[in-house]
Amino acid sequence: MTPITNTTNNTSSVLASAGEMSFLNIIFGLVGIIGLLGNLLVCVVFLRVRHLRTLTNYLIVHQAIIDLTSSALTVLAYLGPQFIYTSDSIGGEIICRFWKSAYLFWSTAIASALNLTVITLERYSAIIYPLHYVNIFTFKRVVGILVAEWLCALIFKSFNFYVQHFDHGICLSKKIWFNAEFGRFVGIVNVTAQFIIPLLIMSVAYTRCIMALRKRSIADVQMGSADASLKRASKNVLKMLVVVFLAFILCWGPNQVMFLSFCLGFKLDFGSKLYHASVILVYTNSSVNPFIYALKYKQFQNGVRLIFGCKSRNGVENTSTVQTLS
Q1: Could you tell me the domains of the chain?
Q2: Of the residues 10, 197, 199, 231, which has the maximum number of CB atoms within 10 A of its CB?
Q3: Which DSSP string corresponds to 64-100?
Q4: pLDDT tens across 172-183, in order?
């Protein structure tokens, strides 16, 4: 299967050799399998360990569900049936426009960016506006936000159906726009919505959070041990999420910059090894977060120890303090 790139790409005209594509399929498939296993572990840990069921962690679980879905789609797309030829029927056209267009994958990409932004704003509210946090992030409101994420993603990416050309059982990716300028406009809006806007919001929010915590650090030294413990836990969560944010930039940045430059009129070889490497980075983003949690998130580390019958390094009491975090 041709690597899933931005939907305005004319990928059919830049296919690599069969050998190269087979190798890429294996790479993409392995990345997807790692993402499946890692994100499944994240869900199990946070949902089974009772004292880890906090709002922040529920949002992280939702992120893991999005990444798990994306990883499953990756495995199916590259290690499953390729559907190079389909029946010349309505069913064949549905496969072409719904599956071959990568509609579901790019919908999860938008949902992922939106959810990362929501997680950032949740921590921003907790740190900058602690007195109003409980009223801002109520359970019903958060559920509504998560549902809205998926609806926005599915609706926004619905134009993917129109960039696939179905001709007598053969499915081809083509730029079917009113004109070239409109196609470029759609591409720019696409990059702006799924990368630039989330990038700007998260950059500003995390910068303000870090500055606020630094200003409070001197006063924290004089506080009681219980409050100091909460502050340390809050900082650990923030540091972990900043690393997740940086991973988002590193994994999505090269591909989005390349595609944006293409939309602005610069030449781009979608069959080049450099571009394929940028696409691999995009897929890697769905697999890398569990490793970040394992390395940087003490709650997750202790949760894994509890799941596998090991004693927490800092004790169960240390992780349970996060219940009252705001």
Answers
A1: 11-324 (1.20.1070.10)
A2: 199
A3: HHHHHHHHHHHHHHHHS---SB--SSHHHHHIIIIII
A4: 766 555 567 777
